[in-house]
Design the sequence.
């Protein structure tokens, strides 16, 4: 079965510091996509960053970057210069094939940014 | 450009009733997916539609059904509601069927009493 595991239910970080959220997944596919979504208290899911499995280069989006280790099936999210607005649930998600938009989500990591 | 619109935002139903939730995707998006979010089970995939055809279905009982119309709007229906169906139901739309970004609506909070 294809699964996504987020082993950190909760994390906290001080404003301006860096934090890394972990994610591992299990699949036998060779081509797939990985995502990090953010869900603030408003419940609106917002895409943070995306990674194509065939790309070796790690994706970056401003303060957000990933460490994608395909062989280890690991996909961690690094948030640099944390801001209060980063406080949210973060979900790692896996798209198992290129012929679907179906997402398999992890259980989420609640991130609290403190002033 | 308007985002994904889900209606209603909140709904309270009685056990045994049925409910229909609506999702209007972003203009031009042809793929719509539905997810159920609960504190216990997290985010679980319900089904996915593309060009009015169900492309994938999650592991939910037959009480959960959906459809997509020619204008890409989608509805999901839950019949014979159970207390455990209380959840946030999220709809997401995508531009094409090639693993592009999914844009989510704000969800419909269903409470079954």
Sequence:
């Amino acid at each position: 079965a294809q699964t996504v595991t987020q082993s950190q239910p909760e994390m906290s970080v001080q404003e301006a510091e860096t934090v890394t959220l972990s994610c591992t997944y299990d699949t036998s596919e060779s081509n797939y996509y990985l995502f990090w979504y953010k869900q603030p208290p408003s419940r609106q899911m917002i895409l943070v960053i995306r990674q194509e499995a065939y790309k070796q280069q790690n994706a970056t989006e401003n303060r957000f970057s990933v460490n994608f280790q395909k062989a280890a099936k690991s996909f961690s999210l690094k948030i640099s210069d944390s801001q209060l607005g980063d406080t949210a649930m973060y979900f790692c998600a896996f798209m198992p094939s290129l012929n679907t938009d179906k997402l398999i989500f992890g259980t989420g990591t609640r991130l609290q940014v403190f002033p | 450009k308007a985002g994904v619109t889900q209606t209603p935002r909140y709904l309270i139903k009685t056990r045994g009733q049925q409910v229909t939730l609506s999702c209007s995707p972003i203009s031009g998006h042809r793929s719509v997916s539905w997810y159920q979010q609960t504190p216990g089970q997290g985010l679980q995939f319900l089904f996915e539609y593309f060009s009015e055809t169900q492309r994938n279905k999650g592991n939910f009982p037959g009480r959960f059904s959906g459809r997509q119309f020619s204008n890409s709007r989608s509805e999901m229906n839950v019949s014979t509601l159970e207390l455990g169906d209380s959840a946030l139901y999220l709809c997401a739309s995508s531009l094409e069927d090639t693993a592009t970004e999914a844009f989510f609506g704000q969800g419909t909070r269903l409470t079954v009493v």
